[in-house]
Amino acid sequence: QLKLFVMMEIEDRDFLNTPPKKTVRFGGTVSNTLAKLQKGDTSDYELIKHQLSDPDIKDAQIISWLQEFRTCVTQLGKDHEQLIYVVLKLPWLGRSQAVVEEYLAFLSNLVSAQTVYLRACLRMVVSNFAPKRIRIQEGNVDISDSDDEDENLPRTFDQCHQALQLIARYVPSTSRFLMPILSDKFPFVQKSSRTLECYVHNLLRVSVYIPDLRRDILELIISKMLTLDVSAPRSEIEEVESGAQQDANGVSQDDCLFDMDEEEDSPLDSSRPDRAVMVHPVAERLDTMMTVLLSYIKDICHVNGSLDIEKTKALYRDLLSVFDKVVLPTHASCHVQYYMFYLCSFRLGLAEAFLDHLWKMLQAPNQPPVLRQAAAGYMGSFMARAKFLPVSTVKACLDLLVPWLHLYINSQDSGSKAFCDVNLHGPFYTACQAVFYTLIFRHNSILEGNMKKGLAYLQGLNLERIVMCQLNPLRVCLPAVTNMFAAITRKYQLVFCYTIIERNNRNLLPVVSCSTGGSSVSTNTNPLDTFFPFDPYLLKSSGKLIEPIYQAWEDLVSSENILYHFDLVSQGSMEEEDDFLHGDSVVDMTPGSYDSHLHSPRSVGSPPVSFLQRPF
User: Fold this and answer.
1) Torsion region of 139: left, alpha or beta (phi above 0 gives left; psi -120 to 50 gives alpha)
2) How far apart are CA 197 and CA 207, in angstroms?
3) What are the E-state strand segments in 89-248?
4) How many CB atoms lie within 10 A of CB 523?
5) What confidence score (pLDDT) does residue 519 get?
6) Are 574 and 582 in contact (CB under 8 A)?
């Protein structure tokens, strides 16, 4: 049976000179076809599925089919899931507004009448959160890649979110079924930066209109970013970036003449005018995702350019929960934790709340020692590097940390465990290092303005007792931190550490570590396995938001203009230190990570485009 449907499409057409569009359909109506199917006649049913799968299907045909399906949606139970899956694959995105509206109406009717298809509808929408994959044929080879240059992406994404909001409106339990799908559809972290950017951006858009999912969405995104972060060590990024820069600077003009016909763009020849592109591929993907996340944080917290306190507090609670769950237990991440650093810069109360949270975790005996040590490391690094943190807040934190160290010494110094053991006293040693590291960066701001009052404050900390105690923290702390702290405290006659340092250097017995199988020895120069979470930020694009609020070591050196000499440290021990300790001036050194030189490339330019206005 041949049935001819003639339909008019009012879509920028010259009505008088253009013949009406026709849509040819074989078989009966959907309702009749379903009735035949119940009697065992599947011919029309298969014909409908075949016609719906036509890659050249027209807008008028799609509208006609959807209208029919809407009239009999109550009959489309689970027995007809194959037919529904074909309908859900219809190419409705990017079509005329009439097609989009009809499809959205169909989705609304379907999830309302047949909730069994809720997951299928959600999967269909979420699968369009990233650019579609296209096949490019080069010779006899098919190359599959994402269509990153699709100009219709903004419109496509808007229509996806329109569909998702409609579904959530008709099915209140949508959020419970949506989160596993968002996780399952997350692109592999090896995908292109553009694919990851689009998907992360769309996930964050979902969190705006389905706020119940925000914490879970943030946890998902940050967990994926951590996977990238730990797979790109700081030293590796620095090596690749500096090597690429040297190669770019070493290209002669004659060499460039022979490269004019090259079609492939090098990473440094990006379309971005500020060249804020990372050459390291993993770092580039992470940079893109960090830019989206930081822009989201900024836009959620600010309304019409002003900080919204209640929205900021709510987002802080969600991000802090994610920090505790996935960031704090992750060792040696370089960049992801900076989302907390950035958020805390919005208001002093947030920074103080973050420090208070870390402090409570450090002193909590029921917490695992590794988390207590991580909390101490975050405290020290945050106090040292946060330019927005006033000296009064730093002193308030020191007034908590230092008395706690003295109380710990009181409880241990005369006991049977009063010896240097990282496993027994790990939180204590990490807290000592946090204090030393903070004073290296902040001693000048404590002393400036009123030298006498500042010195009295530092003397009141009784640092000498901490340094001289039986637990011997100078033996465990990083040599870079120990030597710098010794130089500063000698200059202001607070503590004379070099006697302890020389004794430790002469003592060839390594640090004792207790284990299940008995005591073992180690000559590791980093027995605490320490890392400073807020070491210099290396990512170029997102780094533009971090740089204005970050205290760089080079800035301290240039402003203080003081020379610290290490003439009392034996040359033999100096040769074993990190390279940045060589030399007579602090200009040549930095108390940062022991495993890297910490001189990050700086990029300048305007901040990234606002999250809500970011084009695709």
Assistant:
1) left
2) 16
3) 133-138, 141-146
4) 9
5) 52
6) yes
Angstrom CA distances, 427 to 373, 535, 604, 605, stand at 5, 20, 39, 41
Distance of CA 370 to the CA centre of its chain: 22
How many whole angstroms separate alpha carbon 554 and alpha carbon 547? 13
Residue type for 64, please?
A: S
Which tokens hold the place of 147? 């269509």
The average pLDDT across 199-220 equals: 97
Max CA separation in the chain (angstroms): 102
Calpha distance 61→9 (Å, rounded): 11
Q: What is the per-residue DSSP string for 474-485?
A: GGTS-HHHHHHH
Q: In the numeric block, which tokens belong to residue 274?
A: 């500020």
Residues in the chain: 616
**pTM, two decimal places:** 0.81
Beta bridge partners of 136: 143
**Which pLDDT score, from 0 to 100, does residue 138 have?**
58
Structure tokens at 379: 């405290």
- Token readout for 273 is 């005018």
Of 123, 66, 149, whose CA–CA distance to 100 is shortest? 66
Instruction: Decide if pLDDT at 594 tops 50.
Output: no
Residues 373-378: contacts with CB under 8 Å, at least 24 apart: 373/426, 373/427, 373/430, 373/528, 374/328, 374/329, 374/331, 375/328, 376/427, 376/430, 376/431, 376/433, 376/434, 377/430, 377/433, 377/434, 377/530, 377/531, 377/532, 377/533, 378/328, 378/337, 378/533, 378/534
Where in the chain are the domains? 1-132+150-171
- CA–CA distance, 490 with 497 (Å, rounded to integer): 7
pLDDT at 602 over 90: no
Structure tokens at 171: 């099915």
**Cβ atoms < 10 Å from Cβ of 271:** 6
- Indicate the SS3 state at residue 78: helix
- The whole-number pLDDT of residue 416 equals 63
